[in-house]
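Entry 12.
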Amino acid sequence: MGVIWSPLVLVQPNAVGGSKVEFPRLPSGVSRQIEEGTRVLDAGLFIGEKLGLELSELSACLNRVWLAPPHRGRGVFIDDDIPVLVEGYARIQAALRAAIDEQGRPLGPGGARLKAATGIEQYPDGGLVTCHRPFPLVDLLDALDVLLPFLRFAQEHMLFMTQGEWSTSETPES
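Predicted 3D structure (tokens):
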């Protein structure tokens, strides 16, 4: 059975109680929802760790949200979590960009580290991919290019981010 990845959805904190609050205008290129967003968070953390980045604060933030009991806000990143996500995934994006070329082939010391890492394999064309729940690293880099503006918008507007569908009457718009 395959893994079902949840979308990430931006929500107004004030909308939690069901009140209507106008959502900030989204800039061009930023969506209110990222399909399979949890896949990007998971794979990004995995690759960041393989690149040797210190990501304990990011890992703790993800675990706090993903493993929390439902009554403690499982699946909801609050505005205090967002800066941790921005900082961690920006470092992962920069390190990954330096470690692979445009086709996902290893470059420099970071690329060598990824190529030698457990859990990462190389396609015949040279591109690197995660073994478990395959995700080509070139596609992960593209996904991080979408995730970071999304997270920065959330940070700028003090929004919450939910994992999965939001249960109020508001409907996320692209």
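Annotation: Residues 28-163 form one domain. The chain has one domain: 28-163.
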